[in-house]
Amino acid sequence: MQGSGTFSVEAVLHATSNRNKKVLILACGSYGVRMGSICEKAGIPYDIINFPENEPVQLDETVEGLLASGSYGSVALVHCETTSGLVNPMEKIGQRVKTDYPGLFYIVDAMSSFGGIVANYETVDFLISSANKCLQGIPGFAFVICKNSSLMQCKGRSMSLSLDLYDQWAGFEQNGQFRFTPPTQCILGLKVAIQELEQEGGVLGRSKRYQENNRIIKHGMETLGFSRLIADNTDGFIITSFEYPTDPNFKFEEFYNRLSDKGQLIYPGKVTKTDCFRIGNIGHLFPSDMIHLLKCIKEVLVDMNISLPISV
Question: How far apart are CA 263 and CA 298, in angstroms?
Answer without folding.
Answer: 14
